Amino acid sequence: MGEPAELRCPTCDRRFSPAAPHNLCVCGSPLLVDYDLAAVGRALRPSDLRDREPSMWRYWELLPVIRREHLVTLGEGWTPVLPLARLGERLGLPRLFMKDEGLNPTGTFKARGAAAGVSKAKELGIRAVAMPTAGNAGGAWAAYGARAGLEVVVAMPADTPEVNQREALAYGARVVLVDGLISDAGRLIAEAAARSGWFDVATLREPYRIEGKKTLGLEIAEQFAWDPPEVILYPAGGGVGLIGMWRAFDQLAALGWIGERRPRLVAVQAEGCAPLVQAFHAGAATAPFWEGAQTVASGLRVPKALGDFLVLRALRETDGYAIAVSDAALVQAMHELAALEGLWICPEGAATVAALPLLRDLGVVRPEDRVLVLNTGSGLKYPHLVHGEYEVRQVGSPW
Ligand SMILES: *Cc1c(COP(=O)(O)O)cnc(C)c1O
Ligand SMILES: [Zn+2]
Q1: Which of 257, 276, 359, 349 is nearest to 315 (CA)?
Q2: How far is CA 378 from CA 79, 104, 105, 350, in A?
Q3: Residue 3 has what pLDDT?
Q4: CA 347 to ligand 1: nearest atom
Q5: Are 223 and 254 in contact (CB under 8 A)?
Q6: Whole-number Å distance between alpha carbons of 7 and 14
Q7: Are the CB atoms for 273 and 280 separated by under 8 Å?
Q8: Which atom of ligand 1 is nearest to the CA of 244?
Q9: Best substitution site from 205, 348, 373 to test ligand 1's pocket, by max atoms within 8 Å of Cβ?
Q10: Distance between CA atoms of 78 and 82, rounded to whole angstroms?
């Protein structure tokens, strides 16, 4: 078990063997990983999970790595779901929860994608990987790549938070700073990878990162006793985690572990880079390139997502929604949540918190709903966004 049946193109339906490395389909679309769910259903029951390891690898049968010895893990996943009682009371949403991905290795949920992607790269005999990053993916792939003994090359915008530049360096990756956006870094990497024989692991250019992020949905379902919440808010950059959760719930429904109802998936973006929100409300099937992308939530600064059509499909199929919040609102939400709940979260996660009152006023989330916000990373990686006044005192002077 733990064996993908095939790679399938969601655009032209071509099939590929998972025994060899693949990037995009010949039609240019990302590939998705399919499993023999009937076989998984015969081999595994929800109750079998109770004694398993507290990591995302507890769902081994629904993950793509075939042999245990190829697993590259730092203990990622199985993060807590915490009730937000004080914030929920303030907002009139008494059934509010947060899944806190800030506890993952390297401080963000990118660890899930990197653990799956690096493990599968190792299994397929790949020696060098290269990727553009908005910051956190580079750190995660550098860490897991180091543990696997892979050569890792990451290219990121020169104004990526310093923590992200330094963490990738610390893990021994080759770090290239680009005076442009992640899309410019992506073009550089694609060209250099083709010449150098590096495997291009840019978002959705290899099929396994999404499998790692899929475990978010599997965990949410299990943590809610196979009755997932009515609404899930997700801070979307490329939208990989959202696509992953959508696939997770589909696979769990096919297994009969959850019912037919799906959580309504809501994508939250920053006003300075909201291509998916714009496309959702325009009724479009894909999102055009967003010019001049800018936001302090650096993980959301993705002007063009390869999987935009999948994100938009997931939002519509689940009766979901898309909304943008301002940088001022998300930074304020970050401070409010830290002071109210003891959770200092990343600005991307804080965008979902900032969206809550807007969604409540729109009726997208209702007081009776169980609402889960996904915090994708730790505030510790964004110290430059904290404001407030220190008090300064002279030693020996009276208080
Ligand atoms: C990458 C990232 C996101 C967005 O994830 P996508 O899969 O690109 O949508 C959100 N938050 C943080 C902290 C990130 O690093
Ligand atoms: Zn195709």
Answers
A1: 276
A2: 12, 9, 10, 10
A3: 75
A4: 13
A5: no
A6: 8
A7: no
A8: 7
A9: 348
A10: 12
Residue whose Cα lies nearest atom 3 of ligand 1: it is: 299
Q: pLDDT for 185-231, tens place per residue?
A: 999 999 999 999 999 999 999 999 999 999 999 999 999 999 999 99
Say how far apart CA 82 and CA 99 lie, in whole Å: 6
Which ligand has the shortest distance to the CA of 141?
1
Question: Does 235 sit in the ligand 1 pocket, CB within 6 Å?
Answer: yes
Ligand 2 center from residue 136 Cα (angstroms): 29
Going from the Cα of 201 to the center of ligand 2, the distance in angstroms, rounded, reads 18
Answer whether 67's CB lies under 8 Å from 4's CB. Answer: no
Tell me the domains of the chain and their CATH numbers: 81-107+210-385 (3.40.50.1100)
In this predicted structure, what is the pLDDT of residue 2? 62
Residues within 5 Å of ion ligand 2, judged at the Cβ atom: 9, 11-12, 14, 25, 27, 29
Quick one: which H or E segment has residue 335?
Answer: helix 327-341
Decide if 231 contacts 364 (C-beta within 8 A): yes
pTM of the model: 0.97
Q: How many CA atoms lie within 13 A of 222 on its CB side?
A: 23
DSSP three-state, residue 66: coil
- Distance (angstroms) between ligand 2 centre and the Cα of 230 equals 33
Ligand whose nearest atom lies closest to the CA of 14:
2
pLDDT of 1 > 70? The answer is: no
342 token code pair: 């003891």
Taking residue 184's Cβ as centre, other Cβ atoms within 10 Å add up to 15
- The pair of three-digit structure tokens given for residue 321, joined into one six-digit string: 């929604």
Is ligand 1 within 6 A of the CB of residue 347? no
CA of 241, closest atom in ligand 1: 7
Neighbouring residues of 149: CB distance < 8 A, sequence distance ≥ 6: none
Instruction: Please tell me what DSSP assigns to residue 378.
Output: B
CB of 136 closer than 6 angstroms to any ligand 1 atom: yes
Ligand 1 in reach of 303 Cβ (< 6 A):
no
Span 323-342, pLDDT tens digits: 999 999 999 999 999 999 99
User: pLDDT tens across 175-184, in order?
Assistant: 999 999 999 9
Helix, strand or coil, per DSSP, at residue 31: coil
| Spatial CB neighbours of 21, under 8 Å, sequence gap ≥ 6 | 121, 124, 126, 199, 206
